[in-house]
Specification:
Structural class of chain B: mainly alpha
Largest sheet of chain A: 2 strands, antiparallel
Number of helices of chain B: 14
Structural class of chain A: mainly alpha
Strand content of chain B: 5-15%
Order of helices and strands of chain A: HHHHHHHHHHHEEH
Largest interface: A-B, 83 and 82 residues
Strand order of the largest sheet of chain A: 1-2
Distance between the termini of chain B: 50 Å
Order of helices and strands of chain B: HHHHEEHHHHEEHHHEEHHEEH
Oligomer: heterodimer
Number of strands of chain A: 2
Helix content of chain A: over 70%
Chain lengths: ~325, ~525
């Protein structure tokens, strides 16, 4: 196994970490309008991710940085090619981060409402757009001999990619509502569970269609395994949610996300960005990667730091493991 | 194509706008996290309430600031790929590594422990809570180090070879990239400047409150002694830091200048508008240049000083712009078979107006803050250096004393307080001009001597796309600037909340919200100490 194959796996792991963690952050952001009925409930939801959302988002920066270091051509082609969708994602992440931090800083109705709109839309749009982006990566886009994207933004808005967007949107919202059921107390917890039950069924439906489409279009034996795992985990998440086993439901919604990412990457391998213009011009793990020296350095750094990061991030979740109820929100009683 | 709207020009404008904007928040984040950590340490060690209030107050301003620093930093991580894809392809093997390390080592630290610090007031024992903000502070410094190592490589590429087949830079020694002297000196200069920035910020806000209290006293209105106590400690801390780091900025700046004379003679010649090699070389105080003819039409200079600044003696020659340009043009024509390099010396001269004035404004604004700190430190000095009748208590507004017996006149006192408020933002202006100078002074190169900026842009990105993204970021950043400045001003004006009581007992580790309560049931627990 070459080092660039190891790094292909590591990049997939980082994206899995990102979607697993920020997936429920996006979900929570969407639920502030879908589930919360009043100011206190909105605050309960926001505070379930309060201490952790920022650390979760760094997984994205790591994905960006690691792709730059390990596959410079992938980084260059992907982000210059998917220019406008990425711009929209960046704008959303900027607005969303500021919104969490600033919303409660003034006791002014209009101020809070504006930031709440920001939280909702800036969670919903990236949740959708990441699906569009990854579906397009797997499907292939026009790339020329110089490794540059030659299509337009309209090429990215094909039915398959749009379905991919819908899948990540509903999957993250489902993941978020399972997380909400796990982290809250009182009435909102019960409602989060019933919403998760509905969202779980919708997700199972659209995800099955999308994953089968992926399998038919670009799948192989390994990706079929991940497909089966994804669907099985999703069904288990729905079942455990019905049974009120919130921890297990969350575990399996997380496994679903991991399996979906794994399936997309397995369908992709050994390409990293297939060219629809000429398969010979596709970006692959070998023609897009860095030198063995850089990959070796980065393997040491990642091998040492990733476990450390996982330990202290897990520790944070443990410190803030308690559920939040209305009586924990300051200034409401 | 209209040159003003060429993709290179647009991409450069976007990079300039987003980066200068991002760097308004970075130095404040670096310094305020350490200052907050210092106050929290003082509180943990002495249990003095004023340090608790200072921690909370500066911590709050720090959080408003870091929120903007974090989100504008996301753009930086992706901008290279979006607008500079040919650059990313060419340097990725070298440049990507420090960026990935920054995310893995520094960003995770900062973002995870900032969450623990914000929400951990009632969930972590005091010492552990204090350790969290120190880790954040270390994270911000590490982050600066990795990105400066990356930038230093653009200024002075080391530890690489150009691959004969791909014609791209290939990393040979990560150690050389991370430890070369450009990285070290840039790091030192950026850190000292960052702490000067935070110091001036603290001094300005503390002065605002103390001067307001002074006026209230004069008008016979009641003042809050506790608030004055917090602000007095903050003022002194800020002044001490301003002097130490002002001096540090000057020394490291001088060292960086010497390194640059050696590594990028063009940049320093441009900084001085020194058109032709001179020995001894004069330091230019003021100049109006004529770029077309390659000389200054008006100039006021100090003989020999530039020789001294570059070589530590008053007679050695300093190379001029025209001479370096010729040298670079000749070298580039031979060295770089990669397309689009030419041998016209004029193309190797950066924008002299921007570099010359950027350099002067950087020094002028930065050093004004240092001088203001020095004067402030003297006039507010310790009580036992003053005649007994002029001594003020810990919770009083200090008198501004020139000599042990002589207080400043009312007029100068008033202006002293005002000036420290006015100079609050000076280091921010100096930082911006510093970056504009060092990046513009490297032009036409994006990686000095290896790749020109115009070869670095994304060939596949259309003019319309760059215009859209530049407009979107400019408008969004402008709106956010208004929001953040108003919010910051609101909290800065309100001052510390001296009613707030420090936690009575040390919070139990990971216990329920609301402190050290005995019960552990989920249904119990008091409101969170902090909530969004």
């Amino acid at each position: 196994m070459h080092l660039h194959d190891v790094w292909f796996v590591l990049i997939a792991v980082v994206w899995t970490g990102y979607f697993f963690l920020e997936g429920f952050d996006f979900g929570i952001g969407i639920l502030t309008k879908l589930l919360a009925r009043d100011e206190t409930e909105r605050r309960i939801l926001i505070n379930t991710i309060g201490p952790v959302w920022d650390g979760n988002e760094v997984w994205l920066l790591t994905a960006g940085g690691a792709t730059f270091a390990a596959f410079p051509d992938w980084y260059a082609t992907l982000f210059s090619g998917f220019y406008l969708p990425l711009l929209l994602i960046l704008v959303c992440l900027i607005v969303r981060g500021v919104a969490f931090e600033y919303r409660a800083k003034r006791d002014d109705e209009r101020w809070k409402r504006n930031w709440e709109h920001a939280i909702f839309w800036a969670s919903l749009l990236p949740a959708f757009l990441w699906g569009v982006a990854f579906a397009n990566i797997v499907r292939g886009v026009p790339i020329d001999a110089a490794k540059n994207f030659t299509g337009s933004v309209l090429d990215l808005l094909n039915p398959y990619a749009l379905l991919g967007g819908v899948v990540t949107l509903v999957l993250f919202t489902f993941h978020g509502s399972v997380f909400a059921a796990l982290k809250t107390l009182g009435e909102i917890r019960a409602r989060a569970r019933s919403l998760a039950a509905v969202l779980g069924l919708v997700t199972t439906g659209v995800a099955s269609v999308f994953l089968l489409w992926t399998q038919v279009h670009s799948g192989n034996g390994r990706s079929l395994g991940a497909l089966v795992l994804a669907i099985a985990a999703l069904v288990l998440a729905v079942v455990f949610n019905r049974l009120g086993r919130e921890g297990w439901a969350f575990t399996y919604s997380g496994v679903t996300i991991a399996a979906v990412v794994a399936m997309l990457f397995l369908a992709l391998f050994p390409d990293v960005m297939p060219s629809t213009t000429d398969p010979a011009w596709s970006l692959t793990v070998s023609n897009a990667s860095s030198s063995p020296y850089t990959l070796t350095i980065m393997t040491w750094v990642a091998g040492f730091m990733t476990p450390v990061v996982l330990v202290y991030q897990a520790w944070t979740y443990w410190v803030f493991r308690r559920r939040i109820g209305a009586h924990h929100i300051p200034g409401t009683h | 194509m209209n040159l003003a709207l060429a993709p290179e020009t647009l991409a450069r404008w976007q990079f300039g706008i987003t980066t200068v904007y991002h760097f308004l928040f970075v130095p404040l984040t670096i310094s305020l996290s350490a200052i907050t950590a210092g106050f929290e340490t003082a509180w943990v060690r002495t249990s003095k309430e004023k340090y608790f209030h200072a921690t909370k107050f500066w911590g709050k301003l720090f959080l408003i600031n870091i929120a903007m620093g974090v989100v504008t930093g996301i753009v930086q991580e992706f901008q290279f790929g979006m607008n500079w894809s040919d650059y990313s392809r060419f340097v990725g093997d070298v440049f990507g590594a420090p960026l990935a390390m920054e995310a893995l080592i520094a960003f995770f630290f900062e973002s995870t422990f900032i969450g623990l610090w914000i929400f951990g007031w009632d969930k972590l024992p005091k010492k552990l809570h204090c350790a969290c903000i120190w880790i954040v502070s270390i994270g911000t410094i590490l982050s600066a180090y990795f990105i400066l190592a990356a930038n230093s490589w653009m200024q002075h590429p080391v530890g690489y070879t150009i691959d004969p087949h791909t014609h791209k830079a290939r990393l040979d020694s990560i150690w050389a990239v991370l430890t070369q002297n450009t990285t070290q000196v840039q790091m030192l200069h950026t850190m000292t400047a960052s702490f000067l920035t935070g110091a001036a910020f603290v001094v300005g806000i503390a002065s605002f409150h103390l001067w307001k209290a002074k006026r209230k006293q004069a008008a016979g209105e009641p003042t809050d002694a506790k608030k004055i106590g917090v602000m007095r400690s903050s003022l002194r801390t800020g002044l001490v830091l301003a002097v130490i780091f002002g001096l540090g900025t000057a020394i490291s700046g001088d060292t960086l200048g010497k390194v640059m004379f050696e590594q990028q003679p063009m940049k320093m010649a441009a900084a001085e508008a020194l058109w032709d090699t001179q020995a001894p070389a004069p330091f230019s105080v003021f100049a109006i240049g004529d770029v077309a003819k390659g000389h200054n039409s008006v100039e006021l200079s100090i003989p020999g000083l530039l020789s001294f600044l570059s070589h530590s003696n008053f007679h050695q020659a300093v190379p001029g712009i025209n001479n370096v340009a010729k040298m670079e043009a000749a070298k580039a024509a031979i060295d770089l078979p990669l397309a689009r390099h030419d041998g016209n010396p004029k193309d190797y001269i950066p924008n002299i107006f921007v570099t010359f004035w950027g350099f002067r404004l950087m020094i002028g604004f930065g050093m004004s803050s240092f001088v203001a700190g020095l004067i402030g430190l003297w006039t507010t000095r310790r009580r036992h250096w003053l005649a007994p009748e002029h001594r003020t208590g810990d919770e009083e507004v200090p008198r501004l004393m020139l000599t042990p017996n002589r207080e400043m006149s009312t007029f100068f006192t008033k202006w002293s307080w005002r000036i420290s408020l006015l100079t609050m933002g000076f280091p921010l202006i100096a930082n911006s001009f510093g970056w504009i100078f060092t990046e513009m002074g490297r032009q036409p190169w994006v990686v000095y001597g290896l790749m020109k900026t115009r070869s670095a842009v994304s060939p596949g990105v259309s003019q319309a796309e760059v215009i859209i993204s530049m407009s979107v970021f400019t408008v969004l950043y402008a709106i956010l600037a208004v929001v953040e400045v108003r919010l910051m001003a609101r909290y800065a004006k309100a001052g510390p909340n001296v009613e707030e009581q420090p936690p009575a007992e040390d919070p139990r580790f990971g216990g329920p919200y609301g402190g050290a309560g005995g019960t552990v049931s989920e249904e119990s627990g008091k409101p969170m100490a902090f909530a969004y």
